[in-house]
Structures are given as C-alpha cells and as structure tokens.
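Backbone-to-sequence.
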C-alpha cells in the first residue's frame, strides 16, 4: 500500500553556516557551535513549549533542504571511510535518502520569549545549515534514548579522528572572540570531503561571515587565510 504524506516546517534554524561545506558530520560533536530556532508564525505558542525548559537536550527532525531533488541510492560512500567504500544507505546518515529527513540530538541552552518572533530556542551542537527547515521537536530522554553499550558499527574506529589545527594569532583574531573556539573545533574534525587528500590543495568554506581557507598535510590542518564575506 502506497500512501503520500505531506509535512510542513514548524520552524527554521539560524546559524553561521550559509553553505553545506564545513558543517559538522554529526550533531553533538561540536557543542561550541551555537544556533537559534525560530518558529513559523502559526506555531509561535508559548504553551506549546510548556515543560520543555526542564530538558537539557532535544531531538530535531528536519529536512535535507539542499538534497530534496537529488534522489537516492541503495549504497553510499561514508566520508569517514575515505569516500571509496560503499555501505548501505540505511547503515549510514547520508543525506541522500528515500525521504530527505534528518535526526539530530542537540543541547537546549535556553528558551527566549520575544515580542517579535515568539519563543526562540537557543541550541548547541547542531549539524544543520542555516535556514534548515525543522519538522518536529521532541525531548531527549536519557533513560531510554541513551545506550552506552550500543555498537558503533563501522563508524566506531574513526570516532576519535581529529586533525592538529595550526592557525596564527593574527588570523584567529579576525574571527569574533565568541566564535573562535567553535571554528577551531570545527577545523579539527576535518571539513574536507574524505576522498580528497591533496596536501597542495587549498580548501575553503564560509563560517560566521568569513571565508576560511586551509590546507591539510597528513594530520595537520593549516589555516592560510581568513577573509570577511
């Protein structure tokens, strides 16, 4: 039986990532990254959030808005496996899925009530691009959602992967002070596509209104420029 469903965004997320490149590969990896969630006008009811302030984490159900028309494949190439090994799409968190839906666990830092936008959620650790549509929000329940003895599958061996980041004080000082830690944490997670490993290649991505340029040689990432805009 085939049934079509229609869902609508209840909110959108706003942060420092105007493009997909550079976004953390998983939620919760970089809690120094901050975002806000603003509801659509028809969902700006403070009573809809009653009790949510008692939770430290929430689940976001959202849409891969940049991949809605890209189609899907039964197998994909996970970046952390070097981009050359194919795994089943349902064994990965690839954005190229039959239904372009994402699931992220994020930290809820506070709920702000405003006259212009109604309730605004301040969150940390999101792996979403700016203006990503949010379809639903659910509280994270530690006693059922956390499984410390769970297997990490093929992702386990690379969970502690990180680069040594080199960035001069001059370049780092061009970034607003409250965003420097997030940038360094982000760079340490290696923003490159994993199938690209050319030490002479200059990579770049947009973050917080700046274009960040860098190179990677073996496990050392070197920031070479920080340009406004």
């Amino acid at each position: 039986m085939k049934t079509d469903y229609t869902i609508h965004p209840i909110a959108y997320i706003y942060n420092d990532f105007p493009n997909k490149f550079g976004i953390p590969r998983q939620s919760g990896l970089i809690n120094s990254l901050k975002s806000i969630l603003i509801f659509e006008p028809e969902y700006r009811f403070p009573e809809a959030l009653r009790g949510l302030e008692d939770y430290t984490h929430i689940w976001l159900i959202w849409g891969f808005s940049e991949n809605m028309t890209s189609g899907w494949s039964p197998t994909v190439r996970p970046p952390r496996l070097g981009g050359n090994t194919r795994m089943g799409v349902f064994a990965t968190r690839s954005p190229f899925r039959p239904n372009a839906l994402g699931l992220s666990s994020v930290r809820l830092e506070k709920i702000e009530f405003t006259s212009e936008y109604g309730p605004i959620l301040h969150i940390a650790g999101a792996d979403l691009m700016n203006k990503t549509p949010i379809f639903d929000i659910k509280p994270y329940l530690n006693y059922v959602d956390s499984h410390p003895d769970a297997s990490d599958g093929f992702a386990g061996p690379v969970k502690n992967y990180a680069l040594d980041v080199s960035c001069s004080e001059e370049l780092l000082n061009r970034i607003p002070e409250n965003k420097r830690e997030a940038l360094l944490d982000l760079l340490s997670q290696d923003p490159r596509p994993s199938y690209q490993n050319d030490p002479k290649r200059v990579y770049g991505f947009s973050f917080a209104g700046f274009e960040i340029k860098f190179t990677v040689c073996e496990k050392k990432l070197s920031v070479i420029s920080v340009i406004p805009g």
